[in-house]
Design brief:
mainly alpha, 57% helix, 0% strand
């Protein structure tokens, strides 16, 4: 019985510590998000539009997008066009991914109607 109580107490303590660590991590994320948003609020719309496509973290991309969405009603026609089109200076999301063709060889196997597997380039 003592062993069961000890195990339950240890589990409860571990859960409490894990919850505290999660709460601290969430609080840090919120703080970083607020700092990013405040930085973007001080920039002009043209500066924000120039930053499109260059953000490296998901938080920065979301904050930039949210700020531009908030300003969309006050944008000039040129700014709206720039906002709606792909940015020229965008960094590729998968920069180390090649686009080559692989080699694949197959031999037909089977007999009769509709026979076999295989084929390829």
């Amino acid at each position: 019985m003592k062993t069961v109580i000890t195990l339950l107490s240890a589990s409860a303590l571990a859960a409490t510590l894990a919850f505290g660590a999660t709460a601290a991590t969430n609080q840090e994320r919120v703080q970083v998000q607020n700092e990013i948003q405040n930085r973007f609020k001080t920039m002009s719309t043209d500066e924000l539009l120039e930053k499109r496509g260059t953000m490296t973290s998901q938080q920065e991309r979301e904050a930039l997008h949210n700020e531009l969405m908030n300003r969309q009603s006050t944008m000039t026609t040129e700014q709206k066009e720039k906002f709606m089109n792909r940015p020229e200076n965008r960094t590729p999301k998968m920069k180390n991914q090649g686009s080559g063709q692989g080699l694949m060889q197959g031999n037909g196997m089977g007999s009769g109607m509709g026979g076999g597997k295989g084929g390829g380039r």
